[in-house]
Amino acid sequence: MTQTTTACQEANTIWRDLRKFLLINLVIALLLQVYFCASCLTSWEGIVEIIPEFLFSFVVSMALSFGGSRVEEFLDPRFTWIHHPVQRLLATFITYMVYAFVVSFVIVFLFTWLDGQFELDQIPWGGILDFTFVPMKIALVFMAIFTSRSWLMEWRKSAIEAEQLRSEKLASQYQSLKDQLNPHFLFNSLNALSNLVYEDADRSAAFIQKLSKIYRYVLDVQQEELVGLDRELEFAQNYLELQKIRFEDNLNFKVEVPDCKGCYLPPLSLQLLLENAIKHNIASLENPLFISILQKGEELWVSNTFQPKTSQNEPSTGVGLENIRSRYRILSDRIPEIFQTEHEFLVKLPLLMVNA
């Protein structure tokens, strides 16, 4: 029943679009007739006389409007108006005018031949070519309309995405501020520190230094849309070493990133992944938690042994992963990928490149 309903909806949409397409081109053809021979419409004989010209205008209008929309669809993912305006304008002009010339030539040839104006063994190529330039002038108007529409739509899309980015940034800042004051994190950190003070003064000092670096980093990146991979890795190293002091041999980690120059991430992406890994998985001597951060080409692979806690006071809501996905959607067309097996949980973060 659902498939039938969907098929009917698609058919209705196609029929509605087709009617709209035909109606618009009928109006355009009528306007062209008014422009070229308004007096012909004042009598029945004149109307009958211009029927072939009207059909010609209707076919040309349909061909040019159809081709214009296809050209825009073809160029949209290749040359955006926002990033490549000059290349897009040149590509639009060349592609559409070549298409318009070929289509116009074919239509003129067919209409004049069907009208009996020449035989196939005596084709007046020069005359056909001259008459082809009439629809070519119309094609210029069509191109201006399609180009203006495409530019306005992309400009509007860019403005909406900028507003979304601003809203997402504010939401991320708000969530980060809440995370800074997370009572569980503060309690665990201070509790581990209180025990270390009596056991090992040097480790206590190292703990305080790393804790201060973590909070300093969180404060520093509040206003940034992207941060360098080297800064995120330094933060991740400090964060994991801080947790290592707390969990000792229950937690092990490996960070292997040979080249991180020119690579960027949304800020605190690693913090969200590492916090989720530690919060929602068992970390014990019998089942130590292992976290790995590796660079694979233009991706950063963050994985951990998948050993979920059987009972959790704070069940996973998926907010952290969705937060990362949402920011990537706005900043790039590359989205993080998530893989889960029986023994491993893996997130592949795309490394974003920023031109100097």
Q: What distance separates the N and C termini?
A: 55 Å
Total strand segments:
8
Series of H and E elements: HHHHHHHEHEEHEEHEEE
Structural class category: alpha+beta
Spatial strand sequence of the major β-sheet: 2-4-5-7-6
Taking all residues together, what is the mean pLDDT? 80
What share of residues are in beta strands?
5-15%
Which percent range fits the helix content? 55-70%
CATH topology (level 3) name of the largest domain: Heat Shock Protein 90
Q: How would you portray this structure in words?
A:
The strands form two sheets. This protein has a five-stranded mixed sheet, covered by helices on one side. Strands 1-3-8 form a three-stranded antiparallel sheet. Helix content is 66%, strand content 11%. Helix 1 (2-37) packs across helix 3, helix 3 (51-75) packs antiparallel against helix 4 and helix 4 (85-114) packs antiparallel against helix 5. It folds into two domains: 2-159, no CATH class; 182-353, Heat Shock Protein 90 (2-Layer Sandwich). With 356 residues, the chain is an alpha+beta fold. Strand 6 and strand 7 form a beta hairpin. The protein is elongated.
